[in-house]
What does this fold into?
Amino acid sequence: MADLLCRSSHTMEILISLSVVLLAGFLLTRLTKLAKLPDVTGYIIAGILIGPHILKLVPPRMIEDMGFISDIALAFIAFGVGRFFRKEVFRETGFGVITITLMESLLAGVIVTLSLHYLFHLDWDFSLLLGAIGTATAPASTTVTIRQYHARGNFVNILLQVVALDDGVCLIVYSIALAIVNAGDGAGVCLSEIVLPIIFNILALALGFVGGFILSRLKAPKRSDDDRVILTISLLLGIAGLCVAVDISPLLSCMIFGTTYVNLAKDRELFKHLDRLSPPIFSLFFVVSGMSLDLSTLGSMGVIGASYFVIRILGKYIGAYLGCLMAKTPRNVRNYLGLALIPQAGVAIGLAFLSKRVLPEATGHMLLAIILSSSFLYELIGPVSAKIALIYSGSIQMEQIEE
It folds into this structure.
């Protein structure tokens, strides 16, 4: 009887916590809409308010139990981004997207590394790892802001392709940086921490392709819309679960899943069906992200952390601008793409925890504090900067801004 009551109490706690999270996100977005701010900003603020550092409406253990929500949300986001890699769209943007991605990510990493070493006289190991992490961009808040305002056009196509490829570049750059740091310490290159993640990501890409191929064979009229939605979600969750099992992000694999499907099936209706299911998932994801932000890290950010915050933004903007020049993109893309590449979260935080293990204790803690505190700020200003970029690039109409 006691076990039954305990299970009932735990179930009640989970259900009420989910209710509070969704309601808080809904209420805060009513306020952010009045201020003409993106919904993502309202979700994150809602999470901060109801989280363990202010109102404490959701127990801390519930926040840990909701960790799987981020993987589900990222799987949905990445699958949706895959639709923008249609052959005809990629022909329009061309290989310039690869040039832009390499420039915006690598230049940001180089500028962060050199600035921290020469301005603050930090050792090369610390500067190199922080610079490598600085190459990452979080696609979630930018993608949801695009969806909220129904943004369309060449600027959006290029932006989504760039943020989708960004994580792959970050993984390779970080692996090289970690190899250099380990070699410098005389520890040699650790296979499990450098080579295996790359192998796992390649296998995950293959898994995404297989999933897209299977789903494309099941398109209408052979299967109803409901059947295809169920099969898609099943495959998405399976792919995300396997990625989590080997400690890699599901973004690239699920993006390849969506890309393969849209190119083989020539069907965009499935994406519209999934779009109708995604709002509560995204709301949960960003509110939980807000609850997970530790406000105390802001106090430990310091001058070095503040400098990293600003320098990375400059590196992203300058790199995107130069990449667009090289790719000969229109002026509206060149001038505003960098503004939409500010957010940084999940991948960067994961790499920061890994860096903490290979650096001396004091510098490892400092690097982690910098990434955690800057991610908090990036996620707050990122949606707003993305909205500004979408407005001035002409990707959203005035009537959509007034919504």
